[in-house]
Amino acid sequence: MRRVLILGGTAEARALAAALVPGSVHVVSSLAGRVSNPRLPVGEVREGGFGGPEGLAAYLVEERIDALVDATHPFAGRMTASAALASAATGVPLLVLRRPGWREGPGDAWRRVPTLHAAADLLTGGRVFLTTGRRSLPVFAGLPGVWLLARSVDPPEPPVPPNVHVLLDRGPYTVEGELALIREHRLDVLVTKDSGGAMTTAKLVAARELGLPVILVNRPAPPTGVRAVDTVEAAVAWVHG
Predict the structure, then answer these.
(1) What are the residue ranges of helices labelled H in 23-96?
(2) Cα distances (angstroms) measured from residue 240 to each of 19, 21, 22, 165
(3) Residue numbers of the chain with a pLDDT score lower than 70
(4) CA 153 to CA 58: how far, in whole Å?
């Protein structure tokens, strides 16, 4: 039986595991362990890091993995780079599975930036809806004249600056809920990352309806020379092929 290692706790990673487990493939899903009470995929699950690309390469060899699928978050650049290096070192084929990014439509007022720091540089004051993850909070904390509503799944590391209100919540979200949240906190601008997918797109629809400007951090490009697909169906076909 072929053995496939899926990296990531994304919805796409779970869907891929669910599609492969009933067949003639042994699936191991690897979660980084950074989120408390994660949604677990079907099949075998391991939690925790590998110790860089060398550790991942050793795991691929020791566990006799036949194929590697990187289905991590679009902004998990370090893990993607490790997967590419481990694949090159061991000869284990690698596929990157990334859901499509968001596209601006009529009525949107988006400004794309390359990094979190570039997004912070655009904030000169006001009330900001920040949905870039708890680990990015230090980039935005302490900006003069800026108040932050920072939403994340898990609490950020203390201390939390006095100008930051942390909202612990997990998607999927609704447009009605996002509209109410923006109005309740009188928010002026949305800062988010181009994660793509339907689970968190409601905030963009709400921003459009309210005329709220959006600062969108572009996702990093996948490593050169690595095959990438944007659907679970294409990933299933690759594994079986």
Answers:
(1) 52-62, 77-90
(2) 11, 12, 13, 47
(3) 33-37
(4) 32
Q: Tell me, what amino acid is at 143?
A: L
Phi-psi region of 43 (alpha: psi -120 to 50; beta: other; left: phi over 0): left
Q: What is the dihedral of CA 20, 24, 26, 27, to 10 degrees?
A: -10
Q: What is the spatial order of strands in the sheet that 67-70 belongs to?
A: 44-47, 25-31, 2-7, 67-70, 94-97, 227-229
C-alpha distance from residue 186 to each of 65, 152, 168 (Å):
51, 19, 18
Q: Is residue 60 helix, strand or coil?
A: helix
State the pLDDT at residue 34: 64
> Can you name the residues that pair with 154 across neighbouring β-strands?
none
Q: Which two tokens stand for residue 98?
A: 């990334």
Dihedral of CA atoms 122, 127, 133, 137 in degrees, nearest 10, equals 70
pLDDT value at position 9? 87
The pTM (predicted TM-score) of the whole model is 0.86
Q: Are 178 and 155 in contact (CB under 8 A)?
A: no
Instruction: Give yes or no for a contact between 215 and 70, defined as CB atoms under 8 angstroms apart.
Output: no
Amino acid (one-letter) located at 77: G
Which residues sit opposite 29 in a β-bridge?
A: 6, 45
For residues 139 and 161, is the Cβ–Cβ distance under 8 A? no
CB of 131 within 8 A of CB of 203?
Answer: yes
DSSP code, position 226: -
- In 3D space, the residue among 116, 206, 128, 195 whose CA is nearest the CA of residue 161 turns out to be 128
Mean pLDDT value across the chain: 93
Instruction: Report the amino acid identity of residue 172.
Output: P
